[in-house]
Specification:
single chain, alpha/beta, Arc Repressor Mutant, subunit A, D-Maltodextrin-Binding Protein, domain 2, 10 helices, WH_DNA-bd_sf, DNA binding
Length: 292
């Protein structure tokens, strides 16, 4: 295997075409430079240089070797830059799981900001049913996840990244769709509700049920689903009414009307990650993913 140092010496000599000038640029005396290049030729078994008292020229083999030597040195420098970037989390790969609800709130902003700050990192966004995300973070299938609050996270670290009120989602044909001002939950007593299941979003489900009970009624759940988007699709079809996080207004379903809810419970999104994860890209993401 060739030593890198003689390659640098050879390229410098090829650029200056003079042993004295090359030695000065390399901060060497001329005899060691001459010995190094002679040893390089001996190792290769070819003559690279035509030497004369005034200047140095390259043989055809030397011209070819110069091109390859420059490529090797450039690749070595790039390898060093790549290693440094990877150590700093400025290059590499990062995978983030999220629920559909997060796609209407924090995920687009995070993807834009992180992609702009770290364009050399491959960012993989994976939309997953919420109850499976913590397990995927724990076993290392993904680096971090944005989930609805309320699960058991065990040894994972967590941070609330969004807190927002619930609002009422109604079919545009509903009698209260054109009501002015905020609706009170008691006005929905007797209405059929569409809700996410307690398995998928336990805290959200519990807060909706508790809000109804404080108004003196038990919600009549006509349909349980897993995704907030499915909740809205069912509302659009007139299956029932729903309480959803305010950011779901961005879904813009033409058949759904969103009304503010008086004294609305809050919905939370939580960012999860493992403190054992040593991916440098994750540290940079955590610094960027501040609460909205």
């Amino acid at each position: 295997m060739l030593d890198i140092k003689p390659l640098r010496y050879f390229v410098t000599l090829a650029e200056t075409r003079h042993f004295g000038r090359a030695a000065a640029r390399l901060h060497l005396s001329q005899p060691p430079l001459s010995r190094q290049l002679a040893a390089l030729e001996a190792a290769l078994g070819v003559k690279l240089l035509e030497r004369n008292p005034r200047m140095v020229s390259l043989t055809p083999a030397g011209e070819r070797f110069l091109a390859d030597a420059r490529a090797i040195l450039a690749a070595l420098e790039q390898a060093g830059r790549n290693a440094l970037a990877a150590a700093r989390g400025e290059a590499g790969a990062l995978s983030i799981g999220f629920t559909m609800y997060a796609a209407y709130s924090v995920i687009p902003a995070y993807a834009k900001a992180y992609g702009g700050a770290y364009p050399d990192v491959t960012l993989a966004l994976r939309e997953v049913v919420s109850h499976d995300l913590a397990a995927q973070v724990l076993d290392g299938r993904i680096d971090a996840a944005v989930v609805m609050a309320g699960g058991q996270y065990g040894e994972l670290s967590s941070r609330v990244v969004l807190r927002e009120p619930l609002c009422v989602a109604l079919s545009r044909h509903h009698a209260r769709a054109r009501a002015r001002g905020a609706l009170r939950i008691g006005q929905l007593a007797g209405e059929p509700f569409v809700m996410t299941s307690a398995e998928v979003a336990p805290a959200l489900r519990a807060s909706i049920v508790a809000h109804c009970r404080r108004a003196g009624f038990e919600p009549s759940v006509r349909l349980e689903v897993q995704l907030q988007q499915t909740v809205l699709n069912m509302v659009d079809e007139g299956v029932g009414v729903a309480l959803v996080p305010a950011s779901m207004r961005k879904s813009r379903l033409p058949g759904v009307v969103f009304r503010p809810l008086a004294d609305a419970p809050q919905s939370e999104l939580v960012l999860l990650w493992s403190p054992r994860n040593r991916n440098p890209c994750l540290s940079n993401f955590l610094a960027l993913a501040t609460p909205a």
